[in-house]
Amino acid sequence: MKSPCAGLLLALLLAAAVATPAAEHAPGASAIASAHPLASEAGNEILRAGGNAFDAAVAVSAALMVVEPSGSGLLGGGMFLLHRASDGRNVVIDAREVAPRQASRDMFLDAAGNPVRGASTNTALAAGIPGEAAGLALLQSRYGKLKLAQTLAPAIRLARDGFDMYPRLQAGVGGKKAQLMQSAQAAAIWFPGGQPVPVGARVRQPQLAQTLAILAKEGVETFYKGAIAKQLVDAVQKMGGIWTLEDLAAYRAIEREPVVGRYRGATIISAPPPTSGGVALIEALNVLSGYDLNKVDGVTRKHLIIEAMRRMHRDRAVYLGDPAFTAVPVQRLTDPDYAAGLRTSIRLDRATPSAALESAPEAANAGTNTTHFSILDKDGNRVAATITLNAGFGSGLMIDGTGMLLNNEMDDFSIKPGVPNIYGLVGASANAIEPGKRMLSSITPTFVESPRGYMIVGSPGGSLIIGMVLLATLDFVDGRSAQEIVAAPRIHHQYEPDTLTYEVAALTADEVAELKRRGHDLRARDSWGNLQVVIYDAATGKVSSASDPRGVGTAGLY
Ligand code: DON
Question: Distances in Å between the alpha carbon of 468 and those of 134, 285, 385, 465?
Fold first, then answer.
């Protein structure tokens, strides 16, 4: 499994050392935590112009597409978890991509039934019908106070006038060179004169500025039914893809009820299928509710968290998929009694081998570059949004003339039972490819409400996301600060492979030895994740926010 969000321990430690302390200030404050300072600033600009958190979310999303183009894009998708203060409504805008109508279950397999290397990640066939533009338009029109023309303006400016190249982006661009170079325009943006843009030099994306300006002026119709739709279909088909005008015209962003669970007096509000995130998070918290994690010793606490992660990921692999195509047993999986049953197989002194759990009948997918932001406005409206092209820069294939990159979200389907996706995740027929179906996701935009107040949280990281939000939730319930939550070292287990991965700082040598003794297979790996946290403290009315020190983002209070 590749490191989703690169960085060696040293980098982690350095980043942690220079991280800005979490800001805190008085009631009525707004907060934005995002993966790039210019995106947070774009959101702030919109708040200052009288926009609410939902307007700011459109501005932040659009700005991220420009300044962190590896993470998300108009040809990608995602989910936006919203809380509207005026009536307390929690809702999810599902802007997940769907499989084109000509997609088929075995489309990434050769005649012998073996996966064709790179087909579900590097080709135009890897692109699902995008949901991002539809999601933003829905968010804007139904929940915002302003118009797209206003909320897209900061992103248009950033694309047109440019921003400074930074090391993390430069590294990402370098990693995707072969794909990006297939487009003359992408080559001109990222490798002018054949050389990578130096750190500190200006990156301008005039075609993307133009596309965003068209969207601002003409509205989302043009994207799914108008001139842009035609341009997209022509280009994708020329590249060997199977998008049609009908596919684009049929796309709908969907409003969904969040999934809700409880953990030690806290209420968890998270995203439902077609992401596995919320269901798996609640299942794991239900499992952990049967223990007092603060009364057991440190290594047992970690052992139990890992055993809960193992079981949530096993159920993810077996049961989760697009609810329009497969009956996902959400009630059962999030039922505390079901978790009680799972607990009976957990031993305190021994790891449960994944193979000893009833196995996934088939195998599925998970994630490497994506982005999350958390917003709270002065009125108490909240947004937790995770948006993605799947891998860094998606497939890296640009639609010439538009500045937009194709997603490679089709790899989030289970392309063949038992075959892991780029995140090493396995899945089942619940997540097999079918025309018009949404591919299973791991994104986990979440609100945690408790007597302490509430937290707005989420992260990129593919298969690692759910576990990160789980750890953040446990830390929030334990009273940790926003800065402590984002900086805390991480542990992870995803059922298959049956390995406990950890950031070096997460386990002491004694803990490593003890976990090995209990039967865990351990592997240290590079740091991961880019958690963005906003916390409202009910007792003081204070707002605090923090951006993961592993990334380059900022958490601002406004
Ligand atoms: O939806 C998903 O689960 C993946 N496409 C997310 C990918 C991801 O988070 C990559 N992050 N580093």
Answer: 28, 13, 15, 5
Is residue 203 exposed (0-12), middle (13-18) or buried (19+ Cβ within 10 Å)? Answer: buried
Q: Is the dihedral of CA 294, 297, 298, 300 positive or negative?
A: negative
Residue listed under structure tokens 């769907």: 98
Q: Is the CB of 363 under 6 A from ligand 1?
A: no
Any idea what the Cα angle at residue 465 is, between residues 463 and 470, rounded to 5°? 125
Please tell me which residue in 211, 275, 370, 386 is annotated as part of the active site: 370
pLDDT digits (tens, 9 = 90+) for 223-238: 999 999 999 999 999 9
Q: Answer yes or no: 370 catalytic.
A: yes
Whole-prediction pTM: 0.93
Name the residue among 449, 444, 442, 274 with its Cα closest to residue 376.
449
Checking if the pLDDT of 8 tops 90, the result is no
CA dist., res. 144 & res. 256, Å (int): 18
- The DSSP bridge partners found for residue 202 are 164
Which residue has the least CA distance to atom 10 on ligand 1? 368
Which atom from ligand 1 is nearest to the alpha carbon of 442?
Answer: 3
- Round to whole Å and give the CA distance between 386 and 469: 12
Kindly report the protein residue whose alpha carbon is nearest to atom 2 of ligand 1.
Answer: 441
Residues in the chain: 558
Residues 356, 422, 320, 520, CA torsion sign: positive
CA 188 to chain centroid: 29
Helices (H), 452-523: 465-477, 482-487, 509-517
Q: What share of the chain is helix, strand, coil (3-state, %, to 5)?
A: 40, 20, 45
Per-residue pLDDT reduced to its tens digit, 162-219: 999 999 999 999 999 999 999 999 999 999 999 999 999 999 999 999 999 999 999 9
Q: Are 448 and 479 contacting, i.e. CB atoms less than 8 angstroms apart?
A: no
* Alpha carbons 487 and 531: distance in angstroms, whole number: 9
Give CA–CA dist 72/64, Å, rounded.
7
Cα gap 280→295, rounded to integer Å: 24
